[in-house]
Fold each of these.
Amino acid sequence: MDSTVISWLVTAIGLVLNTAVIAAVTVIVTRHIEKRYQKRDQAETERRERDEQLAKLQEAEKVRQMDEMMNKRCDIQVQTIREEMGKVHSQLGETMSIVRNDLDELKDSTLCSLRDDILNNYWRCHDWQKFRTEWDTSNMEALYAQYHRLHGNSFVDHLMEDFYRIPLK
């Protein structure tokens, strides 16, 4: 073979080898670049996930702080309401005591008034008229019923027994 052909073959083989080396290097470099991109993308994805988790944690912390703040406000309001209710309860107790005393006084004065009316009707029928009418009887029974509802004493019971002994006209 001719030296030109050999030289041409050596050049061609060199070119083929160079091309193969270049192709191999290109494949290696491409794979290396792809791995770096994958690592970068994975790192970016992990960073985004961490950021999202951090944001969720921060949001959860904000919610917890808001709940804590609302609970404190509610506790303060409940305490205020309890204090006000205590004051109202105390005032109500005082007022009820006054009302009870007033009612007792009103009851006593009503009993006194009823007893006076019963006595006046009794003496009018017993001593002055010497008889009783249906109207006197129904009036005395109404007065006696009210007196009895207010838990009056037995003094009037005896008067009513005597009243029914007065002749009816």
Amino acid sequence: MQTITLRINENSKMGKVILDLIKITAADKKGVEVVRTFNAETIKAIEDVEAGRTEKITLDEFRKLLYD
């Protein structure tokens, strides 16, 4: 079995066709399985939280960081 990573523009006509084809094929169990994975940045963030390398901030502090 081979694993392929695709970037599909869900807003384009061809992207919609490809996504529908994949969903139909995977739903019929015809040798295709959709595997959702996190990107590298998300995986690192999860690992940081699990290892305690993060700090809690309040919503107001977050808004200040975001908008200043």
Amino acid sequence: MTHIKTAIVVVVIAMLLSLVFMYASLMSIISSTRSNTERVLDSFVMENATYIYNSIKNGHNFTGSIDAYYYISKTSSELSLDFSGGMLYNRTEQGGFNFRMTNPQTFFTVSNTLNLTTTYDLLFPIKFAGRTVSELRVPVTVKVSYNLK
């Protein structure tokens, strides 16, 4: 009977450790995609800074919206993701998904600062015994502000 209790304790501890490691891995991916998204927004502003500044200075919005294709291609190259079926994704060496990312939606507002907001969802496969049993959807919002000088 003591062997059964020991086995149950070992299995429970292994499951808890597995959850802790999975949580750490997911948080690492979320953090890196968030920082890379901020870098893509910075790149967009730097490439278009003169145009943006002159348009705002003249009292106009610099564009109706940020070019979606430009932003998706920049995000894809910055995060080393592939694009297919309306999703950006990262594959494992065996061909499965590490994670998938919905197309980022980017909006801006101007009020003495240029505020860019990007929203997207990260989808992580939840696996058990080598099979995907579910997907975990994590919504991510990245906001960056730039002071107009």
